[in-house]
Amino acid sequence: MNASNQITTVENHNNGKLELHSDEVHEILSFVPSWTIRWGITAIFFTVLMIICAAWYIRYPDIVASRITLTSVSPPVTLIARTNGKLTELNVHDGDSVYTDFVLAVIENSSNSSEVSALKEQLIRFKPYLDNPTDIRFEFNRFYQLGELQTPYSELLRKWEDYKSFHSFNYHPRKIQTIRAQITVLNELNSRLEKQKNLLEEEVKLAEKNLNTGKSLREKGVASEIELSNYESIYLQKKYGYENAEASLINNALQISEYEKNILDLTRQFEEEKLSKTVGMQDAYKFLLASIDNWEQRYVLKAPIGGKVSFFKVWSVNQYVQANDLVFTIVGDHTTPIGKIYLQTAGLGKIKEGQKVQIKLDNYPYHEFGVLNGMVESIAPVATNNEYAINVALASENRTTYHKTIT
Predict the structure, then answer these.
(1) I want to staple 200 with a disulfide (CB 3.0 to 4.6 A). Which of 210, 242, 330, 404 is the partner?
(2) Which of 135-139, 206-210, 225-229, 385-389 is least confident?
(3) In sequence order, which residues have a C-beta less than 8 Å from that of residue 29 and are 6 or more positions away?
């Protein structure tokens, strides 16, 4: 009985609580505004749709990290000493701008660089005369301090003087001209001999006719033996003169033929000797140029490109340099900076041309100087040593995102 009363009391207590809360909750929930029903679901739908669209278009950036080397289309050029010695000439200061082939410095050697430069200028002026050997008016200046270049220079000088003498004396053409004059004389003589032969031929015919008439008269007893002998003597004289004329014509023809053969031989000899002397002179010219180039390679430091000179291990004349020492560096005037990335095959599929590249420089902390922006310009189609070369074009050359110029 006590248990029943207890249950009843609990039930009554619970019912009281339900009734108490139901009145308050019912009062709130019984009123539902109409706009909540109309626009609530629509707002939720569009919110979800915008999230889905944003998830479709906005991608999480996938970063591929790699080392990059900043260089230029025309990278800096280093000049290295090729021999040991002191600098006898230093024609620039650190930071000077120079043009291509400018002589920066000369290392000590046996040749006078001023004379070598003057000789090079003369060789340039001599080239047209070498191409047209008929013009022999060129005169070389005399140089005596060329050192190791003295021998090839003297050889060219000797070859040129030899050719000039050959061309000036003109032995073969003059000899040919003399022979042609002799041929002309012989042709004129043959022309006269031919006329003389024709006359003699007529005289022979007349003498033969007279001889035949004298024989006929002798047979008839009209002419004496002496008269017949005279006819025979005259005929033989005319015949002898005619044959002499014919022999002279033949001898002259043989002489002309021999002269023409001599002309051919002299012409061949002249062309061969001319070719030999021309080739010898051209070979001496080329050898001298090659010797000068070799001399410059060893002793002269010239700027291969135009740009600014940066000194490395030298700063004054008479300073000693050793072979393979880095002496100068030249940075080109107009250089477009580019980036070079060498990436292994892993992750290469994520990289495409036109993608953005952010470059953080080792010497310029990015939190202080910013980063350089670039773009993938090209990707090598073939790997070298399991690496692909990627070219990166800088968006603003050497200006960072903090608008600072990187030098």
Answers:
(1) 242
(2) 225-229
(3) none
pLDDT at 39 over 70: no
Closest CA to 380 of 362, 392, 366, 368: 392
Beta bridge partners of 395: none
Beta strand 103-107 with 85-90: parallel, antiparallel or unpaired?
antiparallel
What is the bridge-based pairing of β-strands 387-394 and 337-344?
antiparallel
Residues in contact with 344: Cβ distance below 8 Å, sequence separation at least 6, in sequence order: 386, 387, 388
Is there a contact between 303 and 102 (Cβ–Cβ < 8 Å)? Answer: yes
pTM: 0.64
Q: Phi and psi dihedrals of 18, rounded to 5?
A: -65, -45
The structure tokens 């669209």 sit at: 53
pLDDT in tens, 192-204: 888 888 888 888 7
Q: CA nearest 371: which of 389, 398, 407, 340?
A: 398
One-letter amino acid identity for 97?
S
